[in-house]
Structure formats: structure tokens, C-alpha cells
Amino acid sequence: MAWFVVIVAGLFEVAMAYSLKLSDGFTRPLPSVGFVAFALLSFGLLAYALKSLDVGTAYAVWTGIGAVGTAVLGMALLGEEASPVRIVSVALIVCGVIGLNLSGGGH
């Protein structure tokens, strides 16, 4: 259950980053409020999951979901470049998170 919470927290982190972009430097009220709400949800869920998970691995998974999700969202919805180097870099982040879990840190 705690890993599911980390995954949901990571997805809220992606929503937080997207809202930050849409807020246009906190000049647009609705995306700015969304940023704050998603940040609170993301950090709150991560804090809850850390009651039963190792901090290093859980934090790496959370940030990995945020980094990969935000990069993919940027390429898919915001017109950011989807170069081969960027795609390979995203894949390397995924491999690193999987590696941490396989090394025993995901218990």
C-alpha cells in the first residue's frame, strides 16, 4: 500500500510541475492555486508513505516519477524537444529507480 501512495504522490508532483508552468510565474491564479494544492498533496502523501518505507529508495522513486513524468508531459503537451538523448536520459532515470528497488531498497 505504501508504494501505491508513493506512486500517487509522484503523479501529484507531475501535476505540481505542470501547474507551475501554467501559472506563468504565479501571475495566473488558478494554476497557482493548483500548484499549492498539488504540492501539499504530493508532499503529504510522501510523508505518509515514509512511515513504513526506507527514505532513500522511496524518495528516489518519488523524484523519478516526477522527473520522468514531467519530462514526458513537456514533450507530449508543451512542445519540448523529444530528442534521442532526452529519451535515453529519461530511460536511464527509470533504470536507476528500478535498480534501487531490485537492490533491496524497495522493501
From TrEMBL:
SUPFAM superfamilies: Multidrug resistance efflux transporter EmrE (SSF103481)
Keyword list, A-Z: Cell membrane, Membrane, Transmembrane, Transmembrane helix, Transport
Species for this entry: Nonomuraea muscovyensis
Family, as annotated: Belongs to the drug/metabolite transporter (DMT) superfamily. Small multidrug resistance (SMR) (TC 2.A.7.1) family.
Highest rank taxon of the organism: Bacteria
Chain segments annotated as transmembrane: 33-50, 57-78, 84-102
Predominant subcellular localization, coarse grouping: membrane
Subcellular localization: Cell membrane
Protein name: Quaternary ammonium compound-resistance protein SugE
One GO CC term, this protein: plasma membrane
InterPro entries: EmrE-like, Small_drug/metabolite_transptr, Small_multidrug_res
Pfam family, one: Multi_Drug_Res
Entry membrane topology: Multi-pass membrane protein
Molecular function (Gene Ontology), one example: transmembrane transporter activity
